[in-house]
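User: Sequence in, structure out. Go.
Assistant: Echoing your sequence, followed by the structure tokens.
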Amino acid sequence: MHRRSWLAAAVAALLAATACTSSGGERPPAPKPSDPPAATAQPGVLRVLAGSELQDLAPVLEEARKATGVTVQFSWTGSLDGADAVSSGRADGKYDAVWFPSNQYLRLDDAGKSKVLSETPVMVSPVAVGVRSSVLDELGWGDGSKVSWAQVGDAAAAGQLSYGMSDPTRSNSGFSTLVAVAAAFSGAGSALSEADVQKATPQLKRFFAGQKLTSGSSGWLAQAYSRAEPGKVGALVNYESVLLSVNRSLPKEQQLTVVRPVDGVVSADYPLSLLSSSAQRERDSFQRLTAYLLKEDVQKRISEVTLRRPVAPGVAPAAGLPSDRRRELPFPGSRAVADGLLASYQNELRRPSRTVYVLDTSGSMEGPRIASLKAALSRLTGADDTRGVRRFRDREEVTLLSFASTVKWARTHAVPASGSQPGPQAELAAIDADVQSLSASGGTALYASLEEAYRVIARQQSAAGDDRFTSIVLMTDGESNEGATADDFQRFHAGLSPAQRAIPVFPIRFGEAAVGQLQGIADVSGGKLFDGSGSLDGVFEEIRGYQ
């Protein structure tokens, strides 16, 4: 197992905090971050759909519970996915409030705006670039206080600066970075327009040439940065508070100097937002909680715990946080511009990806299970995806590897760019045809099939001579019972080149899958275990943020 990270520690603290309820009342079952929210509202409990970075507020919210009698029960989501849930009405009745890093994307949708009754910004953190100190010296950037986005982009294009960034379609920090660089490169003086995005596109391509790590979450991104070979990743782009928190767990040689570009930033103001579908009792709880969070001593405490800046006037930020603020760069003026920018990032601006899907089609998958797998993968070939969240991207190389007692077959598809002829649709249809041909029979040679996936990637990389985001997705409903063993796989993995060892495996738990085997694979490869027992559709889409 991996050593506990700063994020895991925050989760543990949060679980302790949310085990309590209002003074004098019975304790409800302690909710877990992955639990579905309660079906009905509970006295003294505020059900909040939130971004996972708010896990670090656990000690402050426990103090708030004691002071106000209000327990916050979180359910975690990506910020843009959460905005979609609010706009569509899926949050109505399930949550009393939402708490995302920013509501700017939500406000672009009229339906979304109408779902929010009131919002209270609680703290502030700008998007920044955390640069490894040795790289900062090599670039001649001094203490980083005079660096612009253009300088960051030039260094990335020249191969002098490589960085990790979370996926803009999943994470608000990634989306805020995308907006910030588009606004800075276009020189937009007001709301970002489609013309501004087109103007900035050449510089955006140069900027994203330096992205070497992608992730659906800030926590995994920080772990991937700490595991990366020295020199491969020299920076992280994320919120200032996240970068400073990451430094707390990094050895000195890996620590980051936080650079806030002088030409402007996009900041998160973390508005706790009351949903219009909430009942009066929960509205009262919301008012008590927000009034408490804005008290001067609490604002000081929030800044010290989270390394975010206070919103209350006159409250000094925590030690180590600069007191000056950068100007705010303009946000897209419409949902169409925002979604167009996201789609452009996925299909045109970012480095393309290479993914091998290692799919268990053993006899135990027969019936509803193989049907569920086909439906989930088929959704990845669909065209009804405005932000590029779900479907296979333009320029992506996708290999489907069907296995049971042995590898049954492996077929590779290269999705063309949208502007080319015949375009991506024919290849997406071909992927779907292969998906629909999957059939269940045989045993489960999991480790041997996973080893073959690494060999497939090695052949592909050798033939193409390219440098893509590369990963393996492993889906199984059982336990490996044929072929190579866990020890065999560990020896195989240890014998790979450093570049091959850096390829993460994202196992998906399904059915009676052996969790210990899958977690071991994730640990050895530096990947992340996902739970598909609730919805294969959802977990395949979530993994897209890591590819």
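User: And one key feature?
Assistant: Confidence is low (pLDDT under 50) at residues 1-35.
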